[in-house]
């Protein structure tokens, strides 16, 4: 994402702030808004190549929320983190628009034994990643997909899927029930 897109995402995710007081309240009291705000600011400073500031913000995300993110992670507009705790974004993961991610979620690579090219998932628009789910490897998660709590998703999904279990299966598909 370019700088103007990142700033647009920052404003989009904080559109309800109508006064300076509401911004301060959200940043210092509401943990979920603070985490998303810090992620956006981290991405902006990373794109601007201001390393010491992005390093400071990344460390703040790690220490306060346990959120790991790199400058190569792409997150579109509308990210929501209802419980921002222990979330891992893989190096080149792509998160679509208006995605909701709950606590203890991993969106990362699947590299067994350290061999081969490391590839990351692409999460579609309007998805919900429930508590503790793991989305691993070079897969595409279809738009409006719900991944259930503690599910381990290793294969690509179609749009409008509901994935549960280990390994995750689509419960909308009667063959898997």
Question: Could you characterize what this model shows?
Answer:
The chain has one domain (3-176): UDP N-Acetylglucosamine Acyltransferase, domain 1. Strand 12 and strand 13 form a beta hairpin. The radius of gyration is 16 Å and the shape is globular. The protein has helices at 3-13, 20-28, 31-47, 51-65, and strands at 74-75, 88-89, 94-95, 100-101, 106-108, 122-123, 128-129, 134-136, 140-141, 146-147, 152-153, 162-164, 169-170. The protein is built from four helices and 13 strands. Strands 4-7-10-12-13 form a five-stranded mixed sheet, with no helix packed on it. A four-stranded parallel sheet has the order 1-3-6-9, with no helix packed on it. It starts with a helix and ends in a 7-residue tail after the last strand. The protein has 177 residues and is of the alpha/beta class.
SSE order and pairing:
Blueprint: H1 3-13, H2 20-28, H3 31-47, H4 51-65, E1 74-75, E2 88-89, E3 94-95, E4 100-101, E5 106-108, E6 122-123, E7 128-129, E8 134-136, E9 140-141, E10 146-147, E11 152-153, E12 162-164, E13 169-170
Parallel strand pairs: 1-3, 2-5, 3-6, 4-7, 5-8, 6-9, 7-10, 8-11, 10-12
Antiparallel strand pairs: 12-13
